[in-house]
Amino acid sequence: MAARKKRSSRSARKKPARRRAVKQKATMELHQIAHYTFFIGLVIAILAAFFRSYIGPQVLVTTLVVLGLIVGLFNLTAKETTPFLLAAIALMLAGIVNLGLIPGIGPWLRQALSNIVVFVVPGAIIVGLKTIWKLASD
After folding, report:
1. Alpha-carbon dihedral of residues 123, 34, 86, 128, nearest 10 degrees?
2. Entry pTM
């Protein structure tokens, strides 16, 4: 009878470990999906600058905002928060510069940077709110 109790207690200890492993795997999958979403958003933002006459502005902005929200919700770990917010601020400030004055490639650079800012800002808002929430709860 004592042997049965030992076996059942061992299996009871293994279940939380399995649950943690499954939860960690699901978290890693979400992190990877959001990671790919980030690269897809950057590619769309840059390519849309070159093909802006073929893509409607409402479709482009909606797509970039949704992708940015996904990145902000699922991609960042605690140690990535500060660099992400700093990079978002740098991009927003760089978006102020009138790159359209550069001969030849200026209009494309300006449009690409504007698209990247539209993509990054929703993620920065989410990450900023998450950071404030965490600071307030501590």
Report:
1. 40
2. 0.73
